[in-house]
Amino acid sequence: MAHFEKIFKFCQLPNKKFSAYDAKSVQDLLLKWGLKGNMSLDVFSYDAFFKDCDKDKFVMDFFKDQDVQAFFKISPRAKVWTFDGDLKSVRLQVEVVPATVVNMEFFDKIFLDGLVRESGSICKCYDDQIGDILVSDELRKMLVSEESDFWDVFSDKERGEFIFQIFKHLHRRTSLSV
After folding, report:
1. Dihedral sign, CA of 120, 139, 101, 19?
2. Which residues, in sequence order, are bridge partners of residue 46?
3. Which residues touch 66 (CB under 8 Å, ≥6 apart)?
4. What pTM does this model have?
5. Which pLDDT score, from 0 to 100, does residue 9 have?
6. What is the pLDDT of residues 102-124, one digit of tens each?
7. I want to staple 134 with a disulfide (CB 3.0 to 4.6 A). Which of 97, 147, 172, 177 is the partner?
């Protein structure tokens, strides 16, 4: 009897709209933060029942899927990661990330603790190279260095939240030294 392994198949949903993302205020902020034109949002559906125990297979199948590869876009400015479709030598590590925080009030403490001024300007610090990141402000330093005076503003549990990981990733992408 042959063993049939489940393969997740993905399909891009090209007409999916994101009203919050498309809002002028959001687009203005993306421009201000250097993200406009360097990111895109795409939605894919999949065809099989997903269980947590399938997470590694699900992610690997996602990147192997021909439809996904056809829509995958990499910013030519990023020059950080390329994808040639060959995942045979890739070691995949999938981690479940909690997403219990669902609003931006989560970040209010950066104002209370002095990382960001009431005006919205970020407190500066002396330039420091930490890995591949040029750190020029206290917020960036808090995100990447345990040596930061502000490291403990967010607990380890809060740093593990999906919204914090997205924030850290976006802040990191805008700060890679060239």
Report:
1. positive
2. 10
3. none
4. 0.63
5. 92
6. 888 898 888 887 788 888 788 89
7. 177
